[in-house]
Hints:
This protein is an alpha/beta fold.
Amino acid sequence: MPDVEQLSQNFENVQRRIMQACEKANRPVESVQLLAVSKTKPIDAVNAIAKLGQTDFGENYLQESLQKITERPDLTWHFIGPIQSNKTKSIAENFAWVHSIDRLKIAERLSRQRPKELPPLHVLLEVNIDNEASKSGFHPDEAQNICEKVLALPNLELRGLMAIPQATDNVEKQHHAFAQMHQLLEHLQKKFPNAQLDTLSMGMSGDLEAAIAEGATIVRIGTDIFGARNYS
Length: 232
């Protein structure tokens, strides 16, 4: 069983950090959404955090997440991990958001496989903002062309961008990467004024303050809420 008291304290601490970061950035606290990243964590831990008012949860591993979704279909589930082609159908059928569109083919499959009775699937383009060889995602120079193509797909609603910048304790470098993401989103908003491009999913446990300062609208927090992950 999860330590509910510890989870509650962790959740409050994260909310406080978000509030303080918003105050420092002169942003209303409601302009930043907390996505609780529950990958590898049991449904009991999800239930404990949901009881505190959290509604949005992020998952990386499809089989594990489908079990949780079956138990808690009332929550809003975001897929935030790498997507293989053979997983798109289940993702299209079960999630409300997908943050990790890193190839046009994946967007096309999700669009085709999204059940017609469900509302459009909210999607984000993953941007490899630091051009790291080990990471997936579009190069920033590709974003406009891909954005145009994804906006034309039925059954999807392109909402913006997601990034996982290079991990660093250097606050200046954190700000630089997140500022580049913000500039890229603003560029796309000007190019596609009729699209609802209002979302920047960036910032995790170690850099949420810098992300919020540079315009993040969703911060993805796992470890600082649920504790260290168990990958066994």
